[in-house]
Amino acid sequence: MTLLVVCAVEAERAAILAGEHPDVEVITAGVGTAAAAAATARALAGTAYRAVVSAGIGGGVVGRVPVGGLALADRSVAADLGADSPDGFLSLDELGFGSTAVPADPDLLTSLRVALPDAIVGPVLTVTTVTGTADGAARLLARHPDAVAEAMEGFGVATAAAQVGVPFAELRTISNPVGPRDRDAWRIADALQTLTTAFARLGRSR
């Protein structure tokens, strides 16, 4: 069966298709968790896929994944889903309303790691507001000290896949460091090229 790849924007879709993986269907869901979950659920309702991968560019945690590098999620985490309080942020887990993390399918993650041995593996955070300050990065990483990257769609794709029992993984190529927003330092073209290279390698390893 075909692999479903869900990305946010058309530039990511074009980069993935340029990798010429012979057995993928790539859809553009839009930006953010809600759009990603809705588009994934719609796709899964109409076709049987062997697995779903949330893929695209994102921010890398400084010192863990360099700009231009590659991250694989061992779990996708809704990093800002919860409640504020006088004592600080309370996650959905702490509130007792569910889980903010969906683990990657172990077999799918293993196959991705074999094909992409240079990828850094760890939690990839899904955020509704991209981190843009040093203080914001410090607070985020205090709550998620083992995180390797952040993006805006993974948890939504993961939730849709989990609800129908389809294996899930998340792959991110890094365009910028998590921290102060500096558009002049972003390397989007490099991250998109890494995305193309990653899917070319995945295609050759299938």
Description:
The chain is an alpha/beta fold. The protein has one domain (3-205): Rossmann fold. The chain is 37% helix and 27% strand. It is built from seven helices and ten strands. The strands form two sheets. The protein has a five-stranded mixed beta barrel with strand order 3-9-8-4-10, surrounded by four helices. Strand 5 (82-83) and strand 6 (90-91) form a beta hairpin. The longest helix is centred in the last third of the chain and has 18 residues, at 188-205. It is globular and about 50 Å long. The N and C termini lie close together (12 Å).
Could you outline the blueprint of secondary structure elements for this entry?
Blueprint lengths: L2 E5 L2 H9 L5 E5 L4 H14 L4 E10 L9 E9 L3 E2 L6 E2 H4 L5 E3 L2 H10 L4 E7 L7 H10 L5 E3 L2 H11 L3 E10 L10 H18 L1
Helix pairs in contact: 1-7, 2-6
Structural descriptors:
206 residues, alpha/beta, Rossmann fold, 5-stranded mixed β-barrel, 7 helices, 37% helix, globular
